[in-house]
Design a protein that fits this description.
Oligomer: single chain
Number of strands: 0
Distance between the termini: 81 Å
Low-confidence stretches: 7-21, 25-62
Number of helices: 9
Largest sheet: none
Length: about 200
């Protein structure tokens, strides 16, 4: 007899279908003999989520990477708003989501942090009052703070387009360089760094 190459258990299902295949495939996300990248929505037997739909969507939608990086920087500053005995727990994921949404909506970093600090102060006060009335230490999750901060951010009454236009209006346009001054600078550089031909 010749030696038989080892096969995976999924390949064994195909070779010996009578005894190996279970009657119910509904619990399996990946169909037999297919990798997880080549599956279609109809092949996802018991999936409760849109696995195949999200794979294609990542390529179609542009990701605002610069805003995500800025949100991480704002997240660090939001963590600094919490003090040592603050009764509101800091959550990096929630803070990042809040910062990213606020930046995407056109809010300035200074205002994002200021609204978060105000909401944090209010929620900390609620937690202290609750602890005083119940005689137990109460810690709040950051979600209540984020909801209050988002409500404070929305009080400006502007939409994203108006906030962005206001931000661009505040920027000082650069004055163009005088051509005579530019020629003098180039002549000075040429005189300082002579080429050896």
């Amino acid at each position: 007899k010749s030696p038989v190459a080892p096969v995976s258990e999924q390949d064994g299902y195909v070779r010996f279908p009578c005894s190996k295949i279970p009657d119910n495939h509904q619990g399996c996300d990946n169909p037999l003999n297919k990798d997880s990248y080549g599956i279609q929505q109809s092949d996802l037997y018991g999936a409760k989520r849109d696995v195949a739909l999200w794979r294609g969507r990542e390529q179609r939608l542009a990701k605002p990477q610069a805003l995500r990086r800025k949100a991480f920087a704002v997240q660090v500053r939001l963590a600094g708003c919490h003090w040592d005995n603050c009764k509101v727990r800091f959550s990096r994921r929630t803070a990042h989501s809040y910062a990213f949404r606020a930046l995407r909506d056109g809010h300035e970093e200074r205002r994002i942090i200021s609204c978060y600090e105000d909401a944090l102060f209010v929620c900390h006060g609620f937690a202290v009052d609750r602890a005083a009335s119940s005689a137990k230490i109460v810690l709040f999750n950051a979600s209540s703070t984020i909801l209050k901060a988002a409500a404070l951010l929305a009080k400006d009454g502007l939409d994203c387009r108006e906030r962005t236009a206001r931000w661009y209006a505040k920027r000082v346009p650069q004055t163009p360089i005088d051509p005579a001054e530019l020629a003098a600078i180039r002549a000075q550089i040429a005189a300082t760094f002579r080429r050896d031909d």
